[in-house]
Give the backbone structure.
Amino acid sequence: MLQLTRWRLINQLKKRQHDEVKRAPCVPGSGETTDLPLEQIPDPAGFDLEAIWDEEWEKNLLAAALERVKRHVDAEQFQIFDLYCLEQWPVQKVARTLGVSAARIYLAKHRVSRLLKKERARLESKLI
């Protein structure tokens, strides 16, 4: 499904580029060169559809995996993981705010990270 959508988007972009080239007036005597204003000339390095798609795919996959892990983990452990890993609070601030030891923070990070990696891999294999 992902590949089909990607193909359709690429085909649509190629079609638009082809239509623009057909409509653009050619400069007499210069062969295939078009006389387009600088603003209308596409930047080949500026629009990387695949990179944007991959980034969005990773964000959504991670969000789905986080949501599933959140349901299976103790609320306090997930809160520790969220503050320390996702919000990137320092260990001392998390410990002070939640009243837990630094060792407990590292343990929660390890456990939830391991579950998150497994869930992400499971979701990815299921979707591909």
